[in-house]
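Q: I'm writing a short explainer about Methionine gamma-lyase for a general audience and would like to include a description of its predicted shape. Could you first generate the structure from this sequence?
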Amino acid sequence: MEDTYVLATQKRSRSDDVNGGDTAKKLAAAQGTADPAAALASARHEFGEHGGVNMSIEASATFTVMEPETMRRMFTGELGPDRDFFIYSRHFNPTVLNLSRMMAALEGTEAAYCTASGMSAISAVLLQLCSHGGHVVASRALYGGTHALLSHFLPRTCGISTSFVEVSDLDMVEAAIVEGKTKVLYFESVSNPTLYVANIPELCRVAHRKGVTVVVDNTFAPMVLSPARLGADVVVHSISKFISGGADIIAGAVCGPASLVNSMMDLQQGAIMLLGPTMNAKVAFELSERIPHLGLRMKEHCKRALVFARRLKSLGLKVIYPGLEEHPHHELLKSMHNKEYGYGGLLCIDMETEEKANRLMNHLQNHAQFGFMAVSLGYYETLMSCSGSSTSSELSPEEKALVGISPGLVRMSVGYIGTLEQKWAQLEKALSRLN
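A: Of course. Here's the predicted structure. Afterward I'll give you a sentence or two in plain language.
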C-alpha cells in the first residue's frame, strides 16, 4: 500500500478509483504548523453523510464492494482507505481514521492511528519496531504499566530486553545504546509521576546518530509539548487522559511516519492489525467532538496548576511542578513548550510518608470536597493518588527511590471545575485542618 494512504484529505468516487481515474493526493497542510490548535483547525473536516457539520459514525464491522475484483485488489493493497475502500474495521474504519487525522495534526506527524487503549498503542509500537532479541533503551522514570511491559512482559514473551537509564544523563543514554541491536529509545516527555522533563531535541540527536528510533509518550503534555516537532519519530498517547477529558473513555494513539502506521496495519506483519486493539467507531466519534476544545481545557488546567503550586510552596509544602522557577527542568521546559499552553496540568506534593499522604487526600476529598482519590488524570475534577502505592506500584522500592518517588508523593491532576478561588479555599481549608 502507498505510504501516504492514511492521510487522504479528500473523498474520491469509487468509479474513479476502480477505473484508475485522477487520484492526485492532497496531504494535510497542517503538518508544519507550530501551534497545535492552528494545526487542528487546518486539518481536514469530515462532514456527515447527509451534510451534517459533524461526521457520521461508520458502525459497520465489514464493508461491501460493487465488483468481485475490487476485493482482491484491496487485499493486495492496490486499493485502500486513501481511496475510500475499506475491508474490515479491525484494519481501518473511516470514523477512527478521521480521529487519527486529528491526532496527526495535533502532534505534527505525517500520520496516526488510534487504538483501544494507551497501553495497546505503546505495546504495538514496540512490537512493530523490535524483533525477537531486540533491545530498547528506556527512561527509568516511566508509568508503572509501561515499566512492567518493558522489564517483565516483553523479555519473557518476545526476548526483547530493556536498559533503563537516567535520560537527563546524555552520556549514560549514549553508552546504553548497542549499535545494530538497540532499536528504540523510549521516554515520557514529562515523567509519570515525578514530572521530570526530557530534553527531547538532545535525546533525539543522540539516538539518531546511532540509527535508533525515538518514541515519546506525550500523555502528560498534549498541546504543551510537541515531541515530533522537536525531533521525535513517534509519539504515543493515552487518549483516556487530557485528550478525552471526561474520565469515561479508554483509548490510545500512535502518531508518526505514514510508513510506520501503514506497517502496523499490514495484513501480514502489522501489530495493530494482527493483535487487534481496535478502537470502536462510536468511541472515535465521541473523541473527535472533544479534541477541538482540548486547547481551552489545557490552558485552564495549566493555569490553575501553576497558581496552586506557587501558593502551596508559599505555605511551606514541598511542591514539584515544572512551572516553578526552582524546578530543575524549568528552563528546559520553557525552551521547548508551546508558550500559550503553560507548563502542564499536574503537580506533586511530597508528604514524605504514605500515612501523611493518605491523611491529606482524605481531608481533601471527604472534608473539603476539593477533589477525588482516583488514578488517571485530565478530568475536570481534581484527581489525587499516592503514586508509590498505586500507579507506580509495579516498581520495586529500589527503583522508586532511584527515580525520586517517595512513599508520600501525592500526584495531583488539577481540574478546572468551579472558580479558581473557590477551589483554593477548599484546598487551604483542608491543609489547615490537617495541621
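A: For your explainer, you could say: Residues 1-5, 7-32 have pLDDT under 50 and may be disordered.
Q: Perfect, that's easy to follow.
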